[in-house]
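[Meeting: bench + compute handoff]

Bench side (C.D.) handed over the final construct sequence. Compute side (W.E.) agreed to return the predicted structure before the next meeting so the bench team could plan truncations. Sequence as handed over:
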Amino acid sequence: MIITENTASLLEDIDQKFKAIHQKTDTHLEGLLWSKPITYWDYIQTDALLNLQTQRTTLPDELVFIMYHQVNELLFKMILWEMQQISYCENIQTDFFTDRLMRISRYFTMLTTSFDIMGDGMEVAQYMKFRNTLTPASGFQSAQYRMIEFASTDLINLIDARFRATIDRNTPFEHAFEHLYWQAAGKDHKTGEKSYLLQEFERKYKTSFIAQMKEYNTINLWQKFKQLPSEAQQDPALIKAMREYDYTVNVTWVMQHLNTAKKYIESSGLGDGEATGGSDWKKYMHPKYQRRIFFPELWSEEELANWGVNV
């Protein structure tokens, strides 16, 4: 065997890599000798992925519904991965910040345009049958989406608009949690009693949510933006990316979601019927009611006043 200059250089780099972690290079090279070449299906874990769909009914379109939501959760994971890179980047540069934000917006644009898969890709009659087997489960219970919100903005912007004046950065996280905008969708508006949907959601994720709220309190996207030098905060491309992300998530995406839900519920003859979890889905989802705005300082007074109107 002829050892080329390039091969020798690579072996030296490999040796240095393993020495740095106090490992024997020969041991790892011998392990490479007996290892199997990687295949696409092993790398992507195709078999495992394709066996994660379990229907509760015999209706064919339920499988479309399950897989569509699993794709959503994978995209949410991609979004959280990009957000983590921004939040934990020291001395972040505007180009890096802008690039990652645009990645995130593209993921949400993909989520928005994909609603046609459900809107036009399932029979209303089938959906209205299998949806009853999903009760009380709901897309409301997507923990990753809540984590995306916590990582996007200051907590005050996620508080129910009715309670924002009573909460600030010194408010205990537990108290703030009870006044998040989506809490209202899971409570009886007369008694304040939490629905089974909300109780189970909190039983599963509340500890994680409180931890996420604390973790991103000073490193969410808005805080990272405010930590940039003044000149960088005026960067047109970055401001455009921030605004695009905000509008895509809090208006475009939620309106497409709302319109898809509306199509199925109203086409079924239920009128203003409840979502599977029992929430008042129109008021919970519509941006003009909840005013979900991640970066209000980047919008004009007129834009804020007309948030979610005529869309």
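W.E. noted at the follow-up: The mean pLDDT is 91. C.D. will use this when planning the next construct.
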